[in-house]
Amino acid sequence: MLIELTGSPFPQFSPDEYARRYREVRSVMRGRGLDALLIAGNSASWNRGWCNIRYLSGFVGSHEQISYALVPLEGDPTLIIGGANLHRAGERSVVGDVRGGTDYAGLIVERLAELGLGNATIGTVGVDRFTGLPENHMIVLRRSFPGARFQDVTDTFNGIRAVKSAEEVQSIERAAGICDAGFVAAVEQVVPGMTEFDVFAIMQGAMFRKGGEGPFMTLIASASMETPAAKFPRPYPTSRVIGTGDIIINEAAPKCHDGYGAQGSRPITLGKPNRRYADMFKAALDLYHSTVDALRVGNTDQDVLAGRRIIENSGYELQAPLLHGYGLSLEEPIIGLTYWPVVPTVFKPGTVVVVESSLRIPNMECGLHFGDTYVIEESGARRLTGLPKEILVI
C-alpha cells in the first residue's frame, strides 16, 4: 500500500505522480512476464545510489551499503532497509510496508514467501547496468527458491526513468536554480588569497542555503593559467592558495530534497583569461552549441556524436562525455566517452540531459569544463540552468 505522508518536513511528489510511476512500471512488468521486481540501492555516489528505490518510494537512507524495494505485480510493495533508519522511514517513504535489519536476504525471502512467489519470475534492478545485486544475497534467494527465475532488467527500468514527467521537470528546475546560486556566490565572494577549501565552502554553502539536499557533487581544481597542472575531476578540495592569473575548474550537481538534481559547470578565472584558455573556451562553446542543436525529438545518439568533428582537428581532446542523462542520478544515455558503451538512444519529450563541453590539450592536466542541464521538449531543447555562456571572471 502506498501512503500519503502528512506532517513530513520534506517535499513530496503528488499521489498521482506515484500512481503514474507504478502504472508504467507494472505495465512493463506484464510485458516482460515478470511477477516481481527486486530493486537494489545504496548510499554510493553522493546518495545517488538510491535512485531506483527512491523513484518508487521517496525514501533515501544515510549510510547503507545495500537496501531493497520489492515490487510485486499484484500486491503491496515492501521496502527493506538498514535497521538504523527504520524509525524515520515514515517521514520519507510512501511505501507503507517497511522492514529493517541486517539480514537483508532473509527479509526478502520472508516477503517473497508471503506473496507466494517461490516459483516466480523476478526482475532484478541494480544501481546501474554495471552493478548487479550482491552475490551473497542472490545465493540465498536461489537456494530458498530453486524454482524461481531471476532476470536482470536494470536497463529496462532505467529506460522508464529516463523520460521525466512534468512534476519531475519542475523539481529539476528548482535544482537548477540551486546550482546557479553556487556559481553566483563564487563570483561574488572568492578573492585572491583564498584556498580551494574556501571556494568549496562558498559554493556548497550557497547551494545548501538555497535548499540543496546533501551530500551532492561539487568538484573543484585550481591552477595557474600559464602552467596548469591540476587534475580534474577532483572531488576533494586542497589547501592550494588561489591567486590572480589562476583558473578554477569546477562542476556542481546539487539536488532538491526530493532527490532530483541539476548539473552545471563554468570555468572561473581570477583576472582575464589568457590566450590559451580564451581559444580553448571558443572551441568548447562551438562543441556545446553543436550538442545542443542535436537535442531534438526523434534525433539519436549518433546526431550528438557527429559534433565530435568540431574538435577532431582542433588540437584538443575530450575529458568528459558530450552529454549524459540526469534526474535522480547520472543516467543513460552517456554519449562521447570511448570507454563507456553507448546505449542506442532516440530522444523523447521529457528527456533531461546535461550537456558537457570539457576540453584539454593532450598531455595537459588541466583543461576547462563547461556545461548546462537541458530538457528536451517538442519545440526543442530548453535550458534549465541559467548561467551566462561565458567564462566567469573575478
Main-sheet strand order equals: 4-3-2-1-5-6
**What spatial form do the alpha-carbon principal axes imply?**
globular
Low-pLDDT regions = none
CATH superfamily of the largest domain: Creatinase/methionine aminopeptidase superfamily
The largest sheet is: 6 strands, mixed
Q: What is the H-and-E element order?
A: HEHHEEEHEHEHHHEEEHHHEEEEEEE
How does this structure look, described?
Helix 4 packs parallel to helix 5 (about 135-145) and helix 7 (about 165-190) crosses helix 8 (about 195-210). This protein has two domains: about 15-160, Creatinase/prolidase N-terminal domain (Creatine Amidinohydrolase, Chain A, domain 1, 3-Layer(aba) Sandwich), CATH 3.40.350; about 165-394, Creatinase/methionine aminopeptidase superfamily (Creatine Amidinohydrolase). It contains eleven helices and 16 strands. The chain has helices at about 15-30, 45, 50-55, 105-115, 135-145, 155-160, 165-190, 195-210, 275-295, 300-305, 310; strands spanning about 35-40, 65-70, 80, 95-100, 120-125, 150, 215-225, 245-255, 270, 315-320, 325, 330-335, 350-360, 370-375, 380-385, 390-394. It has about 400 residues and is an alpha+beta fold. Strands 4-3-2-1-5-6 form a six-stranded mixed beta sheet, sandwiched between helices. Strands 10, 11, 12, 13, 14 and 15 form a six-stranded antiparallel beta sheet that branches. It has a four-stranded mixed beta sheet with strand order 7-8-9-16.
